[in-house]
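Subject: Sanity check before I submit

Could someone independently write out the structure tokens for this chain? I want to compare against mine line by line before I put it in a report. The sequence has 353 residues.
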Amino acid sequence: MKIQEIDKNFAQKEKGGATCFYDAAKLPFDLYGVFYDKKEKRFLRMPRETAERVSEGVNYLNACTAGGRLRFFTDSAEITLKAEWKVFGRMPHMPFSGSSGFSLLEKTRRGEKFVAAFMPEWSDENGFQRTANLCGKMREYILYFPLYNEVTSLSLGFTSGAKVCGGNRYKPVLPVVYYGSSITQGGCASRPDTSYQALIAKDNDVDFINLGFSGNAKAEDAMTDYLASLDCSAMVFDYDHNAPSAQYLQDTHKRMYLRYRAKRPNVPILFITKPDIGRENEWKKRAAIVRATYEYALKNGDEHVYFIDGKTLLAGKWRENCTVDGTHPTDLGFYRMARVIGKKLAEIFQKEY
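---
Independent answer below. Compare away.
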């Protein structure tokens, strides 16, 4: 017996009345955070050739669609999502709704309102199809892509005669770029729209690019050069967690800053230390190394650098409930991170722009 047979609230609707399907990689949709590579036949976060130069791990994780979004308007009464992939990324400590699912939200005057979660079942080896009800009136929607799964094909179906057109743009500000670890990528949010970057974007309506690479954010020169090639309103360096040791962090952190700053002299940089303090003996030393880069920059006249001590990110009552496993945040953890980082970014925008 399946839980869906006992409790219908766990059942998902697979088929509906959708008759007109659109390729999500084409117009009229507005795509953010990822692009569709026709040669690779999948969505990617950065060019494959660049990812290959960085590392084998980054090349693999590049196909994870963390930070991917579609914005569109429709007056359809239903929406059917069809997603395909080659590999189903199953993780023991993260629900499919976050790692491999899609979130649909409606853009309203009061913010983004949750509409539906499109989630694979355990047996959906190469993709899935799900249907959700909409209001049938012209509304703007934002579809958030999976945080830890590739997507090789995505199509959206609407009821016959429904209008479908591109969504509103984000604020006329360059996107925020986030570079970091599995936490940056979104592990272990319950939905793609509850990662800390998505929560911040919901609040400030500024586009973002998620370049979190689980276990593989190591400040390689090729990665730093790619980051410096991106036009952005702010650069968030959050790679402390993936430096294999404090010595590695010492050898690469300041170098990463100098290499990036040589090509982007005026882009605001936000340095962050890791939030899971006390998990290993070197965390204080590592935090001091990141702070030292920040202080070096200030002493050398850089007025566009900022710092967040990671121990403040999950602070407060129920801190022990902010992670799944002592490291990767729950939705409560990501909410707290979004409040701290979002507040700092608001200060940066007010000062810099």
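---
OP: Matches mine. For the report I'm noting this point. The chain has ten helices and 17 strands.
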